[in-house]
Design goal:
Structural class: mainly beta
Number of strands: 19
Distance between the termini: 29 Å
Largest sheet: 8 strands, antiparallel
Radius of gyration: 20 Å
């Protein structure tokens, strides 16, 4: 053993120091998951009867995310069994409200918005990987940009990784890899053009409800009371490009969230 390594080992024994490995956010696109995934069948009871040409799609519904005992802390509350993927592109924490999730407002439900809009979920698959140092739940969702693209019915796809450090600072990350990108980014007041129109000069969603005036981007985070707007107006008028990725990162309590564009987590 070198003198340097011997000295570090002695310091650890002397001071009880353990330097736990930690994740890092690095520049550039992430990578596609190469392991096996479990597909969740969209229940026939949730078939959208108004779109008979697209069977087995989920409209205004939520799919429970299997977390394999991984605990994700969001604004001081631990979530394991009550975390959902909304068919309108959002991670939902707690009690879901599917019909209202077409256009999530600041005080609807704690959530992470990932292009929140009037969409249809086509496929949902997941994988859980837990090691001593990290817990990772990987989701791959295929969806339709339904309101704007209901004739050609093209599909789009995101890979989402929920990552938690099991040691050290126990930080948390939500990494989104954009496999293919929808033409419409979603509902927010930073956008100046609304295909669903306006009412009394104010923009409305596809259900005729007003868009939250504090919603700067459809890629956003709300604690159930206020929007944090970590992205500013990024992706308000255009969706993220295909084959790119971005990261939301937080402390162990999921309270302080930071957006890092064009990046991924190195685990």
């Amino acid at each position: 053993m070198s003198k340097l390594r011997s000295g570090l080992a002695n310091d650890r024994r002397r001071y009880g120091c353990y330097c736990a490995p930690s994740a890092s956010i690095i520049s550039g696109p992430g990578y596609l998951y190469s392991g096996s995934l479990t597909s969740v069948t969209i229940p026939g009871s949730l078939f959208d009867a108004s779109t008979p040409t697209i069977p087995n799609t989920l409209d205004d519904g939520d799919v429970p995310i299997p977390m394999a005992n991984m605990v994700f802390n969001f604004f001081g509350t631990n979530y394991t069994n009550n975390l959902y993927w909304s068919s309108n592109n959002a991670l939902i924490f707690g009690t879901s409200n599917p019909v209202a999730e077409v256009n999530i407002t600041r005080n609807l439900v704690p959530s992470i918005l990932l292009g929140n809009y009037d969409r249809l979920l086509r496929t949902f698959s997941y994988a859980n990987n837990i090691t001593t140092n990290y817990s990772i739940t990987t989701l791959i969702v295929t969806f339709y940009d339904w309101y704007m693209d209901n004739i050609s019915a093209s599909t789009y796809q995101y890979q989402i990784r929920l990552i938690k450090e099991n040691v050290g600072y126990q930080r948390q990350f939500v990494e989104v890899y954009v496999i293919s990108s929808p033409p419409s980014p979603g509902f927010s007041t930073a956008n100046i053009t609304y295909p669903s129109g306006s009412q009394n000069g104010n923009p409305i969603d596809t259900n005729g409800n007003p868009i939250d005036s504090t919603k700067n981007s459809p890629y956003n985070i709300t604690n159930g009371t206020v929007f944090l707007n970590p992205c500013g107006s990024t992706y308000s008028t255009a969706s993220p490009s295909a084959n790119t990725s971005f990261v939301f990162s937080s402390d162990s309590t999921g309270t302080s969230w930071v957006f890092t564009n064009n990046s991924h987590v190195n685990v």
